[in-house]
Amino acid sequence: MTSSGTNPDPPAAVGWAGAWEVLLPAASAPARARGRALQAALREAVRSGLLTPGVRLPSSRELAADLGVSRGLVTEAYEQLTAEGYLRSDRGAGTWVGGAVRAAVPRARDLAPRDRGARADFVPGTPDLSLFPRAAWSAAQRGVLAELPHHTLGYPDPRGLPRLRTALAELLTRRRGVVADPERVAVVSGVAQATTLLGFVLHARGVRAVGVEDPGSPEHGTLYASAGLDVVPLPLDDEGLDMGVLRASGVRVVVTTPSHQFPTGIAYSARRRAELLDWARAVDGLVVEDDYDGDFRYDRAPVGALQGLDPEHVAYTGSVSKSLAPGLRLGWLLVPASLAEEVVERKRTMDLGNPVVDQAVLARFVERGDYDRQLRRCRRAYRERRDTLVTALAEHFPGTEVSGIAAGLHAIAALPARYGPPDHFLTSTASAGIAVRSLTSYTRTMSDHHGTDNGNDVIRLVLGYAHVSPTHIREGIHLMANATRSH
Ligand SMILES: Cc1ncc(COP(=O)(O)O)c(C=O)c1O
Question: Which residues form the signal peptide (predicted)?
């Protein structure tokens, strides 16, 4: 997101590689409209914050070659946008995104519904929605409507229905090792709302910056920025957040995904978990733990939540978005005692609480063991899909390394350089109707060698597999091999 660690910039920038992907449609506009389409797409990429001030653009020759358009068209687009103040150029030296523009609207691209027209879709983030337990959910719904007393249909406790808070406290204690008193559980509309709530509460307390993992979830940055906080990207090493950079950054709040880092797929080591908590105690800070897919581990029992080790320095959040469906918009937030009242007050002023019937249905679903059954069913399916993906990659892209722990809904695949260069690989997959994300598109700080990882040509893909059937995984990887071989 930022080219320097403390720059308060627009949310969710994805670096040049991601921006380049949004220019592609302009390149296939009808010849007469192509120049204007390219200018509009580039302008929008800057205005929306996808490209941040200081990012260096590729040379007109390189971009023209990547997009398959004439160099004159790119030169003209650069000149036009430089005149308008979106870009700044230094003759002979290069072209950069200018500093005049401030992104006004958080980018919604990553929250937009996925492209259902894709021939193969490996975009991560969604569970298999066909596994939604319709029969059990509708039985719970009928049961709840029959038993809910009239008075419960009034304005709810903004913390959530007591019955649901009790059910969640039991569930999170048992499954995730969370320290969860029902009085301290807040029901929210997903991790997204938990993030926004925390952002507002922290801002009101005078916090001005929050550290996020880089690479990381674009939503973390977008949502904290929307609450007025500066978002500071912090690099990772093999064990988790780089503690040296974290300490030097000066932030006192940091957002993490320790059980299964998004998107790299690593699990924080025991040592790094301890170091993170030591840091939080030393600076009187806060670690926000986003446990978005912590229930899905295929090689061993899930590692318990960080929050269990120090509930007064960790805010814990999760949701049913990966286990049931993101469209339910139901999740939970547990914060240290010192923040609890402010969080509830924010929740009250935000929406007066979540819908009561939905909360009661989830409570019943959890109480009756349906939630555990659903997790077991999904885990079996997703483990098989991950194995299928690994096998298909080995067959069609020999030499590929799949990294990250066997967990969650996505894997990282590093394809050998001979399938590259990455930009061409991504162009070929996009033209073949294959929806796939590169790891660089989740990176906020720019590497100056656009489209590649630290200058080498390994192609790192973030492959979501949970929502794809084993047959479609095999077909999709086969399709990808055909599309990239013929390039
Ligand atoms: C890292 C991460 N956290 C949380 C979520 C889910 O957010 P929510 O619970 O608001 O649906 C996602 C969604 O893709 C995610 O990638």
Answer: none
